[in-house]
Amino acid sequence: MAPIKLIIDTDPGVDDSMAILAAFNSPEVEVIGLTSMYGNVPTRMATRNAITLCHLAGRQDVPVVEGAHKSLRGAAKERIADFVHGTDGFGNTAPQLAAGDPAPGSAAEFIVRMASQHPGEVVVLALAALTNVALALHLDPCLAEKLARVVVLGGAFYCNGNVNPAAEANVFGDPEAANVVFSRLPNCWLVGLDVTHKCCMSAGAIEGMAGRGRHGTFLRDITQFYLGYHRQAYKMEAVYVHDAAAFAAVVDPGLFEWQQGGVLVVTEGPAKGRTIRDEGKKEWVGSNDWQGLPPVQVALGVDSQRLVAWVLERMTR
Q1: How far apart are CA 310 and CA 307, in angstroms?
Q2: Given a cut of 80, is residue 314 above it in pLDDT?
Q3: What is the chain's alpha carbon radius of gyration, rounded to the nearest angstrom?
Q4: H-helix or E-strand spanning residue 44
Q5: Where are the domains of the chain?
Q6: 33 and 63 Cβ atoms separated by less than 8 Å
Q7: Which CATH architecture has domain 4-315?
Q8: Which pLDDT score, from 0 to 100, does residue 176 have?
Q9: What PANTHER family does the entry give (predicted)?
Q10: 314/45 Cα distance (integer angstroms)
Q11: How far apart are CA 69 and CA 111, in angstroms?
């Protein structure tokens, strides 16, 4: 089979770096572009970090296109996760950043253009707030029919969030954009905290990456700060491999157990960013806002041991 044409929408980010370098090491995918978004770092820094990761992988041919700096509502990012990923997004290791400029145009325009050039072939792996994808849907009302899939790292359905007890960070970053995406993309697959909080890479495995493959030492080094955050916040000698788990869903969705349902996001109040799925177990009397939503796929189970081993192998080839 031909490799999957993959666009990675990203805010690198330690765990984004894991996913991106694993993708460059995976023959099942052809990375045709990276688009940047705010989240772990501001958008402009996300762009520079994405360019640096392309250079590190020897893939300067892959375009990096800058994305939105504000949410659909026009709000700037409320909180940058420097306490998780370091002020540079690379665990405060201050690596030499690559020179070079982003490709012209916007991330949304790039997504639309690639989907139109390769109808039915492009998968978007959305690892940040969903603003760029929502803007692309606004630009092309037929985009959902042109994309093969959108795999989203986002949501928390039967567990606490990671921004607050209600919300997961990417959905919280632009809940209005998430509602646009979940309401207009039936070919949307959500990989959220229900499964990524079961996918832990131990401190020993992180240390074992040193010297392995082209990127093992780099990944070991940038993950030390990320590991320190997990020690403090979760009292664990391991890290969650959120973004790399979402990438695994692109290549091998059989690692997960999926359930369908319409998903609505809370946009106001203390539960802002909460994802709520209609489980489809009841015929509702009267109308509600979930009716008419496409039944997106939500990952609620995972073969975590096999997934983490797969991710580790891909990162250190």
Answers
A1: 5
A2: yes
A3: 18
A4: helix 43-56
A5: 4-315
A6: yes
A7: Alpha-Beta Complex (3.90)
A8: 98
A9: INOSINE-URIDINE PREFERRING NUCLEOSIDE HYDROLASE (PTHR12304), URIDINE NUCLEOSIDASE (PTHR12304:SF4)
A10: 25
A11: 17
